[in-house]
Amino acid sequence: MCGLCQGGPPKKITGKQEAALFIQAWWRGTLVRRTLLHAALRACIIQRWWKQMLVKLLERKRHLALDFYVRQEWAVVKLQSWVRMWRIRLRYCRLLHAARIIQIYWRWHNCRTRGFIQGHYIFKESHLNLQLEISLGAQACRVQQCIPLPIKE
Fold it and tell me: What is the dihedral of CA 38, 39, 45, 46, to 10 degrees?
């Protein structure tokens, strides 16, 4: 301890002691400033890290919001395309049904005026069984025939 801090009569300080006190004060101040500088640097590092974490968090939130928006838009587009497809298919089925009705009436008209041939056949071993029905207006003719097939063995 220095002579000034002690209780009692003040002592005279020599030039060497004064220089020593000056160097000690300078060194203590340097240590305090260095400690404060290190603490400030550490605080700065922590603040930068925290700001980076906040930026990453904000970017993640933005990405999730964008992803949610894209999924909603995709779902809306998909739903709209399904509705359009359903409406077009419904329209196509109606047109197909109308075309079939027209075909049925046209075939019925042709059969009444021209006649038609209807029949079926069955293969049995080496024979062909044929059954035909020929209609010409109000007249009808049925033909059943068994035809042998020339099959080489």
Answer: 160
